[in-house]
Amino acid sequence: MVISVRTKVQGKQMHIAGKWVSSERVIEVRDPQDNSLIDTVPAATAEEMAKAIEAAKEGVKIAAEMPVHQRIAILNKTADIIERRKEEYATTIAREGSKTIREARKEVTRCIETIRISAEEARRIHGETIPFDQMPGSENRMGYYYRFPIGLIAAITPFNDPLNLVAHKVGPAIASGNAIIVKPATVTPLSAILLAEALLEAGLPPQVLTVITGNGSEIGDVLVTHPAVRMISFTGGSQAGLDISRKAGLKKIGMELGSNSPVIVLADADLEEAVESTVSGAFWAAGQNCLGVQRVYIEESIFDTFKDKFTARTKQYRTGDKLSEWTDMGPMITEKEAIRVETWVNEAIEKGATLICGGERNGAFYSPTVLADLPEDCTLAKEEVFGPVVMLYPVSDLEAAIQQSNSADYGLQAGIFTSNLEKAFSAIKHLEVGGVMINDSTDYRIDAMPFGGVKGSGLGREGIQFAIHEMTEPKVVCFKLPK
Ligand code: NAP
User: Fold this and answer.
1) Which of 65, 227, 246, 341 has the most other CB atoms within 10 Å of its CB?
2) What is the topology classification, in CATH, of domain 2-258+459-475?
3) Pocket residues for ligand 1 (CB within 6 Å)?
4) Residue 35: HSE in the Cβ half-sphere, 13 Å Cα cutoff
């Protein structure tokens, strides 16, 4: 990442302790499709991060004192503001990241939904009464538990949904009375800054929210190891997730990590629906999607028909300028990432995989790519590709498909296309994942559902009410009454 002295761009500031501030150095935010400079953000130092955490302690007190009706009003007003500025938010997502303008608009719509659900869930943070007299010697007692905010939450977010994945942490944090420090991905910090603008305009007490920009490798350790931070809510790659969990110490951690999601297509499925859904699931955001379809297991009897239809649909995909309404798929986030994907595909081909279509790179653009005959020992067969590459495998039956789906170290979501209920229920029971989508690809999600993975795909759940649960702790209260 380029860190330079000030350029001619006016430059965005970060929001610390209730103030918009600059830093000595800046990070250039560039559009991956042509490398043009969009803006700059401060490159915070480890010292500035430590100061921001100290300052956020005041925000913890303020957040916990905010009555629920105030939290609801602020969140609803935030959603209204984003709605009003929708096209500006979408253009920012599309310019700083990989998404096309049509994909970016969908992300803004989902962000508005995420913030509105957060407002609704704020009024549903319940506890329950406890029958203490169930224990002999514990008569004449009455009590209950309620959930109280954990305090200060660190939100570390990735580049691929630079607005809505920040909203998935900030919305529930505010709804549940917490203060929050956001460290957005260095390549896509502008959408997080826009979200902060809306929250502050909506009346959020400014000490409650910090958005600090800077390289994770430089400021990450201070954030994740600081004792004042009571929870780390991380979304990103497995390597960084593992690194952070080793360093975090005694604090809560939420880990939303990657996957190489499997989809099963059985012979009794609606093939047209399965093709349309899996193609979209494979190439959404140029395949840079934690739910992206990477492995498709197809029953042998329909393998060739599915492959032909899937390839024909993939070849119709229009790659190009992200801001054009015509474009279906934009570039990858950096040329370096596109080169990584190219290297993995070439390795697979050298080891015997068949390239059905795609496999071409132009700068940060990598064409929608379909492969078959993957050898087990190539990187693509085991790791998350996080690019526009999908692999087709013939399987003898459902049992074989489930076994191969479960062979990965990941387990975020799986999809199955079938018209047979019994087979659908068998897949639900046996697939080792956090969610099973029947007659949808893995790339299906609404913002209110529990979302998260098993195995290498993470720990804990997001989806507003589930995130609120993670961000609060039960406090038990017991009154001893006179006999
Ligand atoms: P990444 O490289 O792991 O970075 C994610 C965030 O972590 C960035 O803000 C990054 O900062 C920061 N970071 C990196 N190393 C750190 C450290 N040691 N300490 C503290 N912070 C650190 O991931 P990415 O490339 O942005 O995103 C892609 C990954 O995210 C994929 O694996 C994808 O599957 C996963 N993802 C998962 C979900 C989900 O909900 N399960 C959703 C979306 C994406 P810098 O940018 O400054 O390096």
Assistant:
1) 341
2) Aldehyde Dehydrogenase; Chain A, domain 1 (3.40.605)
3) 156-161, 165, 183-186, 215-216, 220, 224, 235-237, 240, 243-244, 256-258, 290, 384, 386, 412, 458
4) 6
Q: Which residues does the chain have with pLDDT short of 50?
A: 1-3, 5-7
| Distance between Cα 157 and ligand 1 center (Å) | 6
- Convert the pLDDT of each residue in 389-443 to its tens digit: 999 999 999 999 999 999 999 999 999 999 999 999 999 999 999 999 999 999 9
CA distance 444 to 424: 17
Residue 328 Cα to ligand 1 middle (Å): 25
Domain ranges of the chain: 2-258+459-475, 261-446
**Which residue among 96, 256, 291, 446 has the greatest number of ligand 1 atoms within 8 angstroms of its CB, and so is best to mutate?**
256
Q: Regarding the domain with residue range 261-446, which homologous superfamily does it belong to in the CATH classification?
A: Aldehyde Dehydrogenase; Chain A, domain 2 (3.40.309.10)
Phi–psi pair at 186, nearest 5 degrees: -65, -35
